Amino acid sequence: VQLVQSGAEVKKPGDSLKISCKGSGYIFPNYWIAWVRQMPGRGLEWMGIIYAGDSETRYSPSFHGQVTLSVDKSINTAYLQWTSLKASDTAFYFCARVDGNAASVYYDNWFDPWGQGTLVSVSS
Amino acid sequence: QSVLTQPPSASGTPGQRVTISCSGSTSNIGSNTVSWYQQLPGTAPKLLIYSTNQRPSGVPDRFSGSKSGTSASLAISGLQSEDEADYFCAAWDDSLTVVFGGGTKLTVL
Known about the structure:
The complex is a heterodimer. Chain A is mainly beta. Helix content of chain A is 0%, strand content 52%.
């Protein structure tokens, strides 16, 4: 089971960006994918989750309207997208498979495995 | 400001037992299970404990998790130099979001 993310990006404020997370070694449509932000030298922040089977999403209030989660199950890939980047978006972004309780994603679930992370740098 | 509260740092000498706490509320730790993640320098987080006290295969039994009320703990016994890392706790909240602790940097002296 593995998640492989796209490479580092260097962008300017106002640019758009879409980064990817490709799953392998498991039945991709059967799981949720989570996205987590880690700003330089800081902790982990949950951004939201997307179900790879039907693209149902749940966003953190802190990120709702700021980013868009999507998935293409035909190629086992999840995406995180910005329409207008800000300098404050500079961070590592990790995807992770949500594992655990199949009856409810909101109880007794955890993140495993994680992608290797994508560094997004936004500077003028 | 993270929803779950962890001490920013912890330390111990090789062979010692170290405990890292994670304090929450009735809407997260008090009503849901806890997971713990280890982040070695320059790498992605890795699952260490799930369902509050379960270890994934491959994680040494030196690592253990527990919970009491609205607080959880990660214990590391027989501390080794390779345990030097950042440790994060996480739990689902009744608001249907995941909350993380701010992380604890463990130093092996």
